[in-house]
């Protein structure tokens, strides 16, 4: 573990290094990289708080939904309505143009509040992890046309993070 921590520290001497790049280079999951960051940059909570986190995000307005695969990073802006629980799933069933889908209730083992720089800009996001530390999906706070973070969302993100 200490050896990995040293490798992570060495990689992040390069200010352009992203968490995703570091994870790929070290052949580990993003979560394992983020765990070496400060509490200011990464706070991990138990997945048992999923319902509370999703309920809060539903009040944030438009956010960036992100799903990484090795070949494709899928991103789209959407409002995430409050998920409804049924038959062991969180069901996302917004209107047209909103996020839709079904998330297994027990799939999220932990949730990470992430505040890191990418391409020189501070960003805030919430990552949802499986029991294998794999990223299921991420929610990024919105930016305006000047690439500034939505101030109301930043306040809500920090308040939610502080709650835990």
TrEMBL record:
Highest rank taxon of the organism: Bacteria
Protein name listed in UniProt: HuvX protein
Organism, as annotated: Campylobacter geochelonis
